[in-house]
């Protein structure tokens, strides 16, 4: 068996999988909500290699490592910014929800990270994943 090839930092397209030291992470889809003021990403995070952060064989996964790459197009030269998902209200119309949970080795967390942003002038460029186990992966829409 060949050794596992992992990345630390990468820029990918929606649909691509990042193989990190502890995780396989895929952003499967991204889409605007029908209301025009929400956005969502369907993601899958799989626990694939043991970590010192695991307790009793389980490791926590949450929306904490995720940030949206946005730009407000109203009113001039606003910068592109990475905004933590937790700074937005969650939109639970996207189903199934991406849960804050724990995983055993070999398990995956699959679901939508949907957010309500309330601003129809936001441009959505992608999403970033920065787990506490290291690495920074960017998916561009």
Question: Can you offer a commentary on this structure?
Answer:
It is a single chain. With 141 residues, the chain is mostly beta strands. 0% of the residues lie in helices and 50% in strands. The strands form three sheets. The chain has a five-stranded mixed β-sheet, with no helix packed on it. It has a five-stranded antiparallel β-sheet with strand order 2-3-4-10-8, with no helix packed on it. The protein is globular, with a radius of gyration of 16 Å.
Brief overview, please?
This protein has 141 residues and is mainly beta.
Record the SSE blueprint:
Layout: E1 9-13, E2 17-19, E3 23-32, E4 38-47, E5 58-61, E6 66-72, E7 81-84, E8 89-90, E9 101-104, E10 108-116, E11 122-129, E12 136-140
Parallel strand pairs: 1-12
Antiparallel strand pairs: 2-3, 3-4, 4-10, 5-9, 6-7, 6-11, 8-10, 11-12
């Amino acid at each position: 068996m060949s050794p596992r090839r992992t990345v630390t930092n990468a820029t990918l397209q929606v649909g691509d999988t990042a193989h990190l030291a502890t995780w396989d992470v895929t952003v499967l889809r991204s889409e605007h909500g029908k209301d025009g003021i929400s956005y969502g990403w369907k993601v899958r995070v799989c626990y694939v290699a043991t970590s010192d952060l695991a307790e009793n064989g389980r490791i926590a996964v949450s929306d904490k490592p995720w940030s949206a790459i946005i730009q407000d197009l109203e009113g001039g030269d606003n910068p592109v910014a990475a905004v933590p998902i937790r700074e937005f209200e969650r939109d639970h119309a996207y189903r199934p929800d991406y849960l804050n949970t724990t995983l055993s080795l070999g398990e995956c967390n699959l679901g939508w990270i949907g957010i309500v942003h309330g601003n129809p002038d936001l441009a959505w460029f992608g999403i970033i994943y920065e787990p506490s186990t290291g690495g920074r992966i960017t998916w561009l829409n």
